[in-house]
C-alpha cells in the first residue's frame, strides 16, 4: 500500500474494498479503446493522455454510462472483486463517478442531489438529507442544502458532484477532471478530502486528469492512453491557454522512465524553459 492510501486513523466506517480488474474493448464508429488494468483496493490509478485518447470512455465503461445510442459497444470484463459489472445497469454498480461536467439533477436541490445514491441504496429521506448536509460542509458549502444547480457556480456544482460521488460509500471511485473547475486553493483542499476519503473507503479509484497536481496528490500509478491504446508515454495535447507566471510545473515519471508533463503547462512554456519536475513515487 502506498503512503497516499494509509487508512485514516479512527475513520468512520472504514471499508475493506475489493480491487477493480478490467479487460475491455469499446468500439464507437472508427474509434476503438482497448485496455487491461487492475487497481488494488485503496489504490488510485491516474489516467492521462491527449484529447480523444479514450480516457472518459474508459471511465464510462466502468460506470456503465456508455452512450449506446451513439452505437457504442462494449466487450470484455469489468469486475470488482468477483462481482462482474458489465451486465449491471449503472445504478447497481456502486460506483462514485465525478464526470467532467458536474451534471447535477437540475430539478433537485444540492442535498437531494447528494442524497440520490443514499436513497437508491435504501436510506430514508431525512437521514439522507442530514448526511448530505454534513457532506456539503465537508466540501465547503455549509448551509447550501436547498440551493439548486442554477444557483451554484461551476466550481460549487463540482463540489456537490464530488460529495454525491463519495457520500454513498461506493465500491469504485471514478474522477474525470474532478478538480479542474476549482481555483487552486479549493482544488488543494478537495484533493486532500478525496485522498482521506479514499483511504477510509479502501476502494480502487481511476482518476483522469491533465493536471500534474492531481497526480502528485492522489495517483499511486499512472496509465497513459493514446488513440485508445495503453502506451508507455502519452503525447501532449496542444493547449492555447496563456502561461501562468510563477506556477510550478510538474511531471510524472512513467514506468519506462519517461516523463508526462501536465499538458496545459508544458505547451504554454517557451522552448528551453527549465521545469521543476517532482517525481511521484
Ligand atoms: N457520445 C459520443 N458520441 C460519439 N463519439 C464520441 C462520444 N464521446 C466520445 N466520442 C469520441 O470517442 C473518442 C474518445 O473520446 P473520449 O472522450 O473518451 O476521450 P478523452 O481521452 O476523454 O478526451 P478528452 O481529454 O478530450 O476528454 C473520441 O474520438 C471522441 O470524439
Write the layout of secondary structure elements.
Blueprint lengths: L19 E9 L2 E9 L4 E5 L6 H9 L9 E8 L2 E2 L10 E4 L11 H11 L4 H14 L15 H14 L4 E5 L7 H18 L3 E4 L3 H7 L2 E6 L2 E3 L19 E3 L5 E3 L1 H4 L15
Parallel strand pairs: 3-8, 3-9, 6-7, 7-8
Antiparallel strand pairs: 1-2, 1-4, 4-5, 9-10, 11-12
In brief:
With 281 residues, the protein is α/β, with parallel strands linked by helices. It is built from 7 helices and 12 strands. The protein is globular, with a radius of gyration of 18 Å.
Task: Characterise the protein shown here.
- It comes from Citricoccus muralis.
- GO terms for molecular function: ATP binding.
- This is ATP-binding cassette domain-containing protein.
- InterPro entries: AAA+_ATPase, ABC_SmlMolc_Importer, ABC_transporter-like_ATP-bd, ABC_transporter-like_CS, P-loop_NTPase.
- It contains seven helices and twelve strands.
- It is an alpha/beta fold and 281 residues long.
- The chain has one domain: Rossmann fold, CATH 3.40.50.
- The strands form three sheets. A six-stranded mixed beta sheet has the order 6-7-8-3-9-10, with helices on both faces. It has a four-stranded antiparallel beta sheet with strand order 2-1-4-5, with helices on one face.
- About 11% of the residues have low confidence.
- It binds adenosine-5'-triphosphate.
- Adenosine-5'-triphosphate binds next to helix 1.
Amino acid at each position: 500500500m502506498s503512503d497516499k492510501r494509509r487508512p485514516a486513523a479512527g475513520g468512520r466506517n472504514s471499508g475493506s474494498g475489493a480491487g477493480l480488474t478490467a479487460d475491455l474493448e469499446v468500439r464507437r464508429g472508427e474509434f476503438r479503446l482497448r485496455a487491461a488494468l487492475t487497481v488494488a483496493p485503496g489504490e488510485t490509478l491516474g489516467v492521462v493522455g491527449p484529447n480523444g485518447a479514450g480516457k472518459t470512455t474508459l471511465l464510462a465503461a466502468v460506470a456503465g454510462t456508455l452512450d449506446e445510442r451513439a452505437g457504442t459497444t462494449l466487450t470484455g470484463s469489468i469486475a470488482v472483486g468477483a462481482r462482474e459489472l458489465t451486465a449491471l445497469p449503472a445504478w447497481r454498480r456502486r460506483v462514485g463517478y465525478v464526470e467532467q461536467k458536474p451534471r447535477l439533477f437540475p430539478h433537485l436541490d444540492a442535498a437531494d442531489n447528494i442524497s440520490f445514491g443514499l436513497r437508491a441504496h435504501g436510506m430514508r429521506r431525512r437521514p439522507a438529507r442530514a448526511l448530505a448536509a454534513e457532506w456539503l460542509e465537508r466540501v465547503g458549502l455549509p448551509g447550501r442544502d436547498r440551493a439548486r444547480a442554477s444557483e451554484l457556480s461551476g466550481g460549487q456544482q463540482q463540489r456537490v458532484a464530488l460529495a454525491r460521488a463519495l457520500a454513498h460509500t461506493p465500491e469504485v471511485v471514478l474522477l474525470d477532471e474532478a478538480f479542474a473547475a476549482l481555483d487552486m486553493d479549493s482544488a488543494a483542499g478537495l484533493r486532500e478530502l478525496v485522498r482521506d476519503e479514499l483511504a477510509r473507503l479502501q476502494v480502487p479509484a481511476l482518476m483522469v486528469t491533465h493536471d500534474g497536481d492531481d497526480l502528485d496528490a492522489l495517483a499511486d500509478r499512472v496509465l497513459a492512453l493514446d488513440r485508445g491504446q495503453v502506451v508507455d508515454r502519452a503525447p501532449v495535447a496542444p493547449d492555447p491557454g496563456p502561461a501562468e507566471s510563477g506556477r510550478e510545473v510538474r511531471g510524472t515519471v512513467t514506468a519506462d522512465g519517461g516523463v508526462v508533463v501536465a499538458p496545459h503547462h508544458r505547451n504554454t512554456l517557451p522552448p528551453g524553459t527549465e521545469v521543476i519536475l517532482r517525481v511521484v513515487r
